[in-house]
Amino acid sequence: MESILADLCGTNPDNPLPVWVHGSIGHCFNQLTLNVIPHAILAVVSACFLGTPRSGFRVPCRPSWGCRIAASFTLAVLFLADTIPATISQQELGPLYLEVLVNGTATVTWFTHGLALLMLFRSIHGFTKGPVALAFLALLSIPSLIIKLVWYYHKTAWSPAHPAASSRFAILCLQLASLLVYVIGYLFPTTSRQEFLSINHSWHEDQPISEPGIPVPDQQRVAEDGESWLSRFFYIWMNPLMKHGYQGKLKQPQDVYVLPRQLQAANVCDCFYSCWQKKAALPQVEEETVSLTSPIIARGDGSSNAPDSLHHAQKPVRLFSVLNAAFGLRFYSLGLLKLAGNLLGFSGPLLLNLLVNFMESQQEPLSHGVLYALGLFAGSFLGALFRNQFTYEVNKVTLMVRAAIISAIYRKALRVSSSSLTRFTLGEIVNFMSTDAARLVNFCISFHEVWSMPFQFAITLYLLYEQVGIAFLGGVALTLLLVPINKIIANRILMNNKEMLKHKDARVKLMTEFLSGIRVIKFYTWEKHFSTRINTCRAKELQKLRAVQYLDAVCVYLWAALPVLVSIAIFVTYVLLGHPLTATKVFTALALVGMLVLPLNSFPWVLNAILEAKVSLDRIQRFLELVDQDLEAYYALDVPSGTAAAMEIQCAAFSWTPVEEESTRQPFSTGTVQLHIENLSVEKGMLLGVVGKIGSGKSSLLAAITGELIKQGGRVYICDLEQGFGLATQEPWIQSTTVRENILFGREYDARLYKEVVEACALSDDLNILPAGDQTEVGENGVTLSGGQKARIALARAVYQEKELYLLDDPLAAVDAEVANHLMQKCILGVLKHKTRILCTHRTEFLKKADVLLLIDNGRIVKTGTPADILPLVEAFPKSKDMDKREEEKAHDEQGQEVAVETEAKESTQNNHLIHKEEEKKEGAVAFEVYKAYWLAVGSCLALSILLSLFLMQASRNISDWWLSHWISSISQTANTSAMACSASLPSPHLLLFSVAGLVSPIQALDTTPAPSNGSLDVNFYLIVYGSIAGANSFFTILRAFLFAYGTLRAAAVIHNRLLQRVIKATVTFFDTTPTGRILNRFSSDLYCVDENLPFMLNILLANMYGLLGMLVIVTYGLPWIGLVLLPLAALYYSIQRYYRCTSRELKRLYSVTLSPIYTHFSETLSGLCSIRAMRATERFELENHLRLEQNQRCLFVSNTAVQWLDIRLQMIGVAVITAIAGIAIIQHQKQLGNPGLVGLSLSYALSVTNLLSDLISSFTLTETMMVSVERTEEYTTDIPTEPQDKLIQVAADWPSQGLVEFQQAELAYREGLPNALDGVSFTIYPGEKVGIVGRTGSGKSTLFLALFRMLELKSGRILLDGVDSHLVGLEELRSRLAIIPQDPFLFSGSIQENLDPQGKRTDAELREMLEQCHLWDAVTQMGGLDSEVGERGRSLSVGQRQLLCLARALLTQAKVLCIDEATANVDQKTDQLLQKTIRQCFADKTVLTIAHRLNTILDSDRVLVMQAGKVAELDSPTHLSQKDGSLFQRLLHSGQQ
Question: How many of the other CB atoms lie within 10 Å of CB of 379?
C-alpha cells in the first residue's frame, strides 16, 4: 500500500502521504483526500438520482437550473482539457498518474452530476432547488481548487517556453469561475409557492386516485414512485407520513399514500389476467378466451351441451403456473439479493478474524488494519442494505400475489354457475379469501428461506471446519441430539394445549350462563356456588397451562443454552485433539456458532408454512376449477321469427345439478326438480302470472330465464340480453349500506324517478319512520328492517333499474292485503305497465288483471290461459277459500307485528343510546399503572427474583465470554515471554496453549523449556473456570425460565380471581348497561392473552433488554472510548423508536379497519349473486371489490414499509457501532493500548447489535399491545360499581318469622339522572296475605321486587320486614330469607338436583316431595331421576316444565315471603291452573305478592295493589275495586276482557 502511494505521488516510501510540505498543505494529500474523495462521493450520490422518473407535465426552464446544468457540463469539459497540459509537461506540474487519476475522476463526476441535474429538472423536483445534499457535495471540491491555485502560483516559472503551465493555470481559474456560477445558480429564487401548488394539483390529477369522486388532498402522494435511489434505499419518502403518524394525524385510510403504480390492484390484476388468458389459450380454441373480457359472458369451461366442451374441461388452468408467469421472474430474481445479503453476513466474522489477527501481530502494516475496518464497514453496510431491500421487495411481491388471488376468487365467484357453487359453503368461500390467501402470502416469505437456510448452514459448517478442523463435529453432534428432544417436547405441548382449550371452553360456557342468569343468581344468592364452579374449571385450565408453560421453559432453556453448550463442546474437542486455542479461533468460532443456531430453530416453521400453503393452493385451485356460467351456449343469440316476443323457451329441459352428478345419485334419492318447458313465448309488454303449489317449480322457471340453471337441451331466447333483467327474488337481498344506495344500486340519482319508485313501492311512510330517512344504514342482510320492508326495497331496486323484462318472485308474500293491493296497482300495473312482467305468486286474488296465466306443477307447464280459465283450477288445488282468508288474516297479523317490531326497534335504539355506553378505547401508550398492576399480580418478591435470575444469567454469559478473552490475552503474554527466552526456537507468538509433546510427556518438555508445563497447568485451570462459569450460566438460565413461567402463571391466576370476584359483586345496573359480549370478552380473549401471549412476548422483551445491556457493558469495558459514539446513537435510537411506535400503531389500526369491508362485501356478493348477475352489475361489483382491496393494500403496504423504514435506520446505527469499534481498536493498537482479546469480544458482540435493537422495538411494541388486555381486565377490577357488602345488624335465624312487609315513602331511580321509578311508595302487607300487583308497563311493578331484594338501593324511605329495616341486614342474609319466582325460568346446565338446590342443603326425599307437589315427579323419573341433566338453559324440559321447576325451587326455600313475577306467554292454561293450585296449597300461611299480567289469576287474592307512574294508585280487595266506578282496576279489567 505504502509503495503504491509513493509511486503515485513520487514521494519517499517511509512517508508516502505528507500532509504538510514547506509551510503549506502537501500537493498529493490535497489531490487525493480533498479532491478525489469528494468527487467520488458526489459521483455516487448523483448516480443515485439518474433513475428519477419524469413528471407528467412540461416544466418551464428556470435560470437557476440552467446555470447549474451548464456549469456541470462545462466543468466536465474543463477537467478533461486539463489532462492535456499535464501529460505534455510530464513531471513538472505534479506527478503524471496522480493528475490523470484526479482529472479522470472529476470529468466522470461532473458529467454524471450534469445528467442527474437534467433528470431532476424534468421530475417534480424541477419546482424546487432539488436535493440539498447534491448542492452541498458539489461545493466540497472548492477548497481543493483554491489550494491548488495557490500551489501553482508559487511553483510555476512563468515564461513563453512553458505554455503548458500558463494554460493549466488558466484552466484552473475557469474551473473556479464555473463553480462560482454553479453556486450563484443555486442561490437563484425558484418557483413561487402558489405556482408550485397549482402544478402540484395538476400532477395529482394524473395520478390514480383511491376512490372515484374523492378529491385528493395535498398530502396524498404516491408512494415511492418518482423518488431517487437514495430516497428508495432509506425510505426518505416515508418521512412525512411517519411525522403525520407521530402527530396523530393518521385517522382515515385516505391519509395514507396511494400505492405505487406497479402495485395498484388494477395493474396487478391486468397482468395476472393476461397471463391467465395466455395459459388458458394454449390448450383451448381462441374464441373461448375472448369471452373472459366480455361484460356479461363469462369464460366457458363448457357447461353447454356441445360435445367438444368436455375436452376443454379436462385441462384446467393451474393457479400456481399463472402466479408463476405473472410474478415469478420478479420473485425468483430477489433470490440474488438474498444470496448477496447472506454472503455479506459471513463477511463480518471473517473480517473480525483478520482484524483480531492484526491486533495480535506487531508486524502487520497499519494499512491492513484500515482495510479490515473499511471492509467491516462496507460489508455490514451493504449487507444491511441488501437484506432490507430484499424484505421490502418480497413484501411488494406478496402484496401483488394477495391482490391477484383475492380478485381472482372474487371474479370467479361472480362468474361461476350457481349449481356448481353449491359444492362449497359460504363460510368456506370467504375463508379462501382470508385464511388461504394469507397462507399463500406466507409462502412467498418462506420460499427463499428454504434454500437459503441449508446454504447458510453449510457455509457456516465449512467456515467452522476451517477454523477448528474436525472438532466442529462435536458441536454438530450435540445439536443433532437436541432435535428429537425438541420434537418430544413439542408433541407434549400440543397435547396439553388441546386439553387446556377444552377446559377453557367449559369455563367460558359457564361464564355465559352465569351472565345470562345473573338476576336469578343474585335473587337466590348463588354467587358463591357459581364462583366455585368457575374456579374449579379455571384450576383445571391452569393445571394444563402450567404443564405447557414449564415444557416451554425447557424449550427456552435448550434454545438459550445451545450456543454455550455447542461452543464448549467444540473448544473441548479442539483442545483434546491437541491444538492450541488462539483468540482469533475462539471469537470467530463463537460468532459462527451464533449463526448456526438460528437456521436450525426456524427451519421447522418454514417447512410448516410451505406445507400449509400447498394445502391452501389446492383448495383455491378446486374453487377456481368450478364450471363457469356459459351464457353464449345457454342463450340462443338468433332472433326468432315473431319479433314481438320478449322471451321464448322451446323444448328446453333444465336441472339444478349437472348430468354427471345426477347419475351418481341413488335413483330414489330426492333429486332436484327437473324443469321441462315445451313451448313458452312471452310478448313484449305482457303481464304473465305464474301459479302453482309450493315446490312446483315457479322460482326455477325464473332461474331458468336468468341462466342460473343448467340447460340440458332446447333453446332459450331473450330479447335485449345485454341489458339484463329486473329481478326481485323471493328472499329479498339487501346490501348493508343506506336505503337509498340499495334502491339506486349503482345508477345515477334521478330525483323524479326515485320519488315515483318510492311511492309505487309503498315505501314513503317507512322512510319517514326510519331515523335518518332513506340515508339510514341497514345492517348486514338488512337486519334492522322487517320482512315487508326488505321485500319492498328489493322491488324498488328492480323497478329503479328500468329494465325491459321484469321477473318478480312473490314480492307480495311478506306484506298485508292493503299494501299488496297498492304494490299491484301502483307498481306492477302502474310504473311497470309498459314493461314485460313475469309474476310468480300464491296470492291469486291479485292475478285477475294478468294477460296470461301459467299453471305449473312438478316442473311442467300444466295449462296456459286467461285468468278466467286458470284461476278456478288453482282454487281446486288444496288451497281453499277459507285458507285464503286465513292467509290474509295472517298477513294482516304480520303487518301489525311488523309495525310493532318497527316501533319497538325504534324505542330500543333510542333507549340503547341511553343504556349501552360505548366501550372506551384507550388511545396512545399503555399507562404505567397497568405495568404496576401486572407486577403486583406476579408478586413483588417473585418479580424481583425473576429479574435477578435474568441478570445473573446474562452476567454469567458475558463473564464466560470475558473469561475466554482474558485466558487468551494471558496466554499470548506467556507465549511472548517464553518466545523471547528461547529465542526463535518456538514459533513466534502464535498463542501456544500447549504442544502435543507437553500433553504426552511433560517431564521431557521440562528439559527444553519451562513454558509448556506451566501452560498445561494453566489450561486445566482456565478450562475448569470456563466450564464452571458456563455451568452457572446454564443453571441461571433454567432457573430464570422456570421462575418466569411460575410468575406469569401466578399473575394469570390472580388476575382472573380479582376479575371474577369483582364481576360477581357488581350491581345489577352494571349488567343491564353492559352487553354480555363485552364482559365475556374480558373472560375469554383478554384472559387468553394474559395466560399465553403476554408471557411469551414479555419473555422475549426481557431477554432482549438484558442482552442489549450486557452487550453495552462488554463493549464499553473493552473499549471505553466507544462511549463517545454510543451516547448520541442512543439518543437517536430513542427518538427513532418513539416516532415509529406511534405511527406503527395507527397504521395497524387502519389496516384492520379496512380489512373487514373486503370480507363483508364478499359474503354479501355471494348471497346476492343471482340479483347481481341478473341486473348486470358484476362489473361494478368487481370494481367495488378492487377499491376496497386497494384501500386495504395501501394501509398494509405502508404498514410493512414502516417496519423497513425502522429497520434500515437501526441497521445504520449498528453499522456505525461496528465501524466505530473497529476504528477505535486500530487507534488503540497504534498506541500499544489494545488488548486483542477484549477488542475481539467487543466486535463479536457488536455484530449482533442491529438484531438486538430491532427485536427490542418489535417485542416492546407487541408487549404493549398485549398489555392492553391487562388494562382491560384492570378496568373491571377497579372501575365497576359493586353492591354494598357490609352487614350492620345480626338477625334471628328464623327472621322474618311472620311475613309482614312495609314500604315507607320508598323512592328509587335506576340510575343517576333518570326519573324516579318508585316515587314515595307506602303500603303495608300483613302476614299471610295474598296480594296481586297490577298496572300498565313501566308503572313500577317489577321495581317493587327489585327494591325488596335490594337489587337497587333506595334513594330515600325504608322497607321493613317484620319491623326490621332491610337496609341494615347483610345482602346475602336478606335475599336468602325471601323467595321469588322470576318471569323467565332460568336453569343452568347441570342435574335437576343441582338446579333445585345448588348448595346441597336438602335430602333427596325432600326434593322428591317438592317435585311431587309441583306435579313434576313423573316427568323427572322419565328423564332418569334427580341426576338427569337439564341441558344448556334447561333445553331438555319444555317451557312449562321449567316454570314448574322454578316454583319447586321457591318452595324449597321455605321463606315467609314469596314474590311471583308471573310468566306471560310461556305457560299453557293447564300448567297455569296447576301452578295456581300448588301456590294456594303450599303457601297458605305465607305472604304472597304476585305481579299479574292476566288479571283472572289474581281475582281471588285478598287485596289488589294498582301501581301508576311509580306511585300506589289503589289498594283494596278485587271485588271492591272492580265495582268502584272510574277505578283504574276496573278499566284494566275491561281492556283485558275485550
Answer: 20
